[in-house]
Amino acid sequence: KAGVTQTPRYLIKTRGQQVTLSCSPISGHRSVSWYQQTPGQGLQFLFEYFSETQRNKGNFPGRFSGRQFSNSRSEMNVSTLELGDSALYLCASSTGVKTNEKLFFGSGTQLSVL
Amino acid sequence: GDSVTQMEGPVTLSEEAFLTINCTYTATGYPSLFWYVQYPGEGLQLLLKATKADDKGSNKGFEATYRKETTSFHLEKGSVQVSDSAVYFCALSDEGSGNTGKLIFGQGTTLQVKP
Predict the structure, then answer these.
(1) Is B103 on the interface with A (CB under 8 A)?
(2) Cα distance from B105 to chain A (closest Cα, Å)?
(3) pLDDT, tens digit (0-9, with 9 covering 90-100), for A52-100
């Protein structure tokens, strides 16, 4: 069974640009969550999508957005990039229907903003 | 709000040494607790979990007990190996949100095991 796939693996952008990251969950999983990982702030929850609907959101500005498609693949978009957006962005998938469920993480997209 | 505090690293041990990584939490409800591990260049993997007070999670020689009275979930292993070198994250589920995908993580503790 294929794991969670994130593309691209690395991205370099400049301030003011926008970026789209992609996440393909494990087959059969309907929940995709996104996290930002930085040395200073650690792992912070961005949002979760379940069956194409955002069902929870973290404390990030509106520049961070996401969506989920009917095949459960998810994208997150960051507009008007700032230097502080440089981070490893991780997505995680699960069935989304059980409490305390194990999350399966991808290897992440490393975003550098210059 | 809910939060998780881990001991700061890095932690450097010799092979076969005893490992303890401290984790304490603050939560208004009754969260479930997790330990995730991140190997270099990879995403996080669930190591173990406990869903209620006094539960003990265990996997691959690692153990952690959910202590409600001390709000702690310390990770232990009796004899570490070089292959255990990784970053360890303590986390709790945000049960108040009613979702499964939102976890609150500690800052992570880097473990380096030397031969």
Answers:
(1) yes
(2) 6
(3) 999 889 999 999 999 999 999 999 999 999 999 999 999 999 998 877 7
Which of B42, B46, B101 is facing A48, going by the closest CB pair? Answer: B101
Q: Taking CB atoms and an 8 Å limit, are A90 and B44 in contact across chains?
A: yes
SS3 per-residue string spanning chain B: CCEEEECCCCEEEECCCCEEECEEEECCCCCCEEEEEECCCCCEEEEEEECCCCCEEEECCEEEECECCCCECCEEECCCCHHHCEEEEEEEECHHHCCCCCEEECCCEEEEEEC
Rounded-to-integer distance, Cα A6 and Cα B39, Å? 17
- Report DSSP letters for A60-82, one per residue: --TTEEEEE-TTS-EEEEE-S--
